């Protein structure tokens, strides 16, 4: 429908949003990556800016135009994303982890391109765990009352897995998407349930990623602490 002037309910607030997906290099020409386009994170950044926030967008390997009035910091790997988000979070009222962070990275990086060897099968790729950035942000809040939001893509038992994940991560809100062959990834539309640590569940019907972003900010705003300094 017709949209009037946007309520500046994030005026004076600093928010950090991560978007896109991390890439974990294997050698100078190859990486382990994922299918995240970054559209949902960009929508969160753009809607927060439209509502008056000062926005830092930490973008992993996206090919999208910078949203107007948003500071965009490009990153490659999960460890680079972690460093950038922890730094930006130091003075943030809210942090939204919309990025698809690689759970694992290759245990070793080959400084030269990995070559085939005639008559030999390839070596398996050994992986190690990446840090869990959302859990870390939730456990060590940079400011008292900082609101931390996670995203979860689930293929099965969406609500049960989402509830367990919210508790495990310790965040305030978890936006749970059902993903599948042609759901969510790369699409301009999204459908979700937002689970909150107070037990509430807010379903968001299928629609544009901007609309889901606005519903997320609607749930963040009443949870923001008074900003004294
Ligand atoms: N996340 C993170 N650091 C990681 C992995 C995930 O900060 N190393 C964040 C994502 O940005 C997202 C949330 O955690 O906001 C949930 O990601 P998801 O992959 O669903 O959770 P995992 O704990 O990795 O669980 P799973 O084994 O289902 O992948
Ligand atoms: Ca994961």
UniProtKB/TrEMBL annotation:
CTP binds at residues 103, 113, 131-134, 151, 165, 169. It catalyses: (R)-4'-phosphopantothenate + L-cysteine + CTP = N-[(R)-4-phosphopantothenoyl]-L-cysteine + CMP + diphosphate + H(+); N-[(R)-4-phosphopantothenoyl]-L-cysteine + H(+) = (R)-4'-phosphopantetheine + CO2. Its EC number is 4.1.1.36, 6.3.2.5. Pathway: Cofactor biosynthesis; coenzyme A biosynthesis; CoA from (R)-pantothenate: step 2/5; Cofactor biosynthesis; coenzyme A biosynthesis; CoA from (R)-pantothenate: step 3/5. Residues 10-221 form the DNA/pantothenate metabolism flavoprotein C-terminal domain. One of its GO terms (molecular function) is FMN binding. Residues 15-229 are annotated as: Phosphopantothenate--cysteine ligase. Its cofactor is Mg(2+); FMN. GO terms for biological process: coenzyme A biosynthetic process; pantothenate catabolic process. Keywords: Decarboxylase, Flavoprotein, FMN, Ligase, Lyase, Magnesium, Metal-binding, Multifunctional enzyme. Binds 1 FMN per subunit. GO terms for cellular component: phosphopantothenoylcysteine decarboxylase complex. In the N-terminal section; belongs to the HFCD (homo-oligomeric flavin containing Cys decarboxylase) superfamily. Catalyzes two steps in the biosynthesis of coenzyme A. In the first step cysteine is conjugated to 4'-phosphopantothenate to form 4-phosphopantothenoylcysteine, in the latter compound is decarboxylated to form 4'-phosphopantotheine. This is Coenzyme A biosynthesis bifunctional protein CoaBC. The lineage of its organism: Bacteria, Bacillati, Actinomycetota, Actinomycetes, Kitasatosporales. The chain holds residues 184 to 412 of 412 of the full protein.
């Amino acid at each position: 429908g017709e949209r009037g002037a946007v309520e500046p309910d994030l005026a004076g607030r600093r928010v950090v949003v991560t978007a896109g997906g991390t890439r974990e290099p294997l050698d100078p020409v190859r990486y382990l990556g994922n299918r995240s386009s970054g559209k949902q994170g960009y929508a969160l950044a753009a809607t927060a800016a439209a509502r008056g926030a000062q926005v830092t967008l930490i973008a992993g390997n996206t090919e999208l135009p910078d949203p107007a009035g948003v500071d965009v910091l490009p990153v490659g790997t999960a460890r680079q994303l972690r460093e950038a988000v922890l730094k930006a979070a130091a003075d943030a009222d809210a942090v939204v982890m919309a990025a698809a962070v690689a759970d694992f990275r290759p245990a070793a990086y080959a400084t030269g391109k990995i070559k085939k060897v005639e008559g030999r099968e390839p070596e398996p790729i050994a992986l190690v765990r990446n840090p869990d950035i959302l859990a870390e942000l939730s456990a060590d809040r940079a400011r008292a009352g900082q609101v931390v939001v996670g995203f979860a893509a689930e293929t099965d038992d969406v609500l049960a897995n989402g509830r367990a994940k919210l508790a495990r991560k310790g965040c305030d809100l978890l936006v749970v998407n059902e993903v599948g062959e042609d759901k969510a990834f790369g699409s301009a539309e999204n459908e979700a349930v937002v689970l909150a640590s107070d037990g509430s569940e807010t379903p968001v019907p299928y629609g544009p990623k901007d609309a889901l972003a606005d519903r997320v900010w609607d749930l963040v705003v009443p949870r923001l602490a008074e900003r004294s300094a």
